[in-house]
Amino acid sequence: MRVVTSPQEMRSLVGEHRARGEAVGLVPTMGFFHAGHISLMRAAREENDCVVVSLFVNPAQFGPGEDLRDYPRDLARDVKMAGGVGVDYIFHPGVEDMYPRPYLSYVEVEGITEGLCGAARPGHFRGVATVVAKLFHIIPAHRAYFGLKDAQQVRVIQKMVEDLNFDVEIVVCPTVREEDGLAMSSRNIYLGEEERKAATSLYRSLQLAEQLVRGGERSAGAVTAAMRGLLEGEPLVRPEYVEVVDWQELRPVERLEGRILVALAARVGRARLIDNILLDVP
Ligand code: PAF
Question: Could you tell me the domains of the chain?
Answer without folding.
Answer: 2-173 (3.40.50.620), 189-281 (3.30.1300.10)
